[in-house]
Amino acid sequence: MKANVIVINPRDNVAIALEDIAAGARVRLPGGGTLTAVEKIPYSHKVAMVDIDSGQTVYKYGESIGSASAHIGKGSWVHTHNLTEEKGRA
After folding, report:
1. Using CA of residue 42, residue 47, residue 52, residue 55, what is the dihedral sign?
2. Which residues in the chain come in under a pLDDT of 50?
3. Residue 61 class from Cβ within 10 Å (0-12 exposed, 13-18 middle, 19+ buried)?
4. How many domains does the chain have?
């Protein structure tokens, strides 16, 4: 099956949705592998590929975009409600 997210850099701990992904649906990673979306992931938004602890750096496109303001579980939507963004990033 074709990936429904994009991952740019091996350092990334989030992927970017290429389509709306429903809660409970499979997130299909590039190169194979899947995870389950625990909540709706809107098109072009971030989904956690791994558990990210509060305070841990969030990487998108190989760059830090901020830190988790709370624990973010694998398959969760990553956005302003659980991410302290670095100015000019995200």
Report:
1. negative
2. none
3. middle
4. 1
Residue 44 belongs to domain spanning: 5-85
Those residues with Cβ within 8 angstroms of residue 84's Cβ, 6 or more apart along the chain or in another chain? 66, 67, 68, 69
* pLDDT confidence of residue 90: 52
Residue 20 lies in a domain: yes
The pLDDT value given to residue 75: 98
Question: Within a domain: residue 90?
Answer: no
Structure tokens at 26: 């499979």
pTM above 0.90, yes or no: yes
Half-sphere exposure of 66 (CA within 13 A, CB side): 18
How does strand 46-48 pair with strand 83-85? unpaired
Residue 63 lies in a domain: yes
| Token output for 47 | 């989904």
CATH of the domain at 19: 2.30.130.110
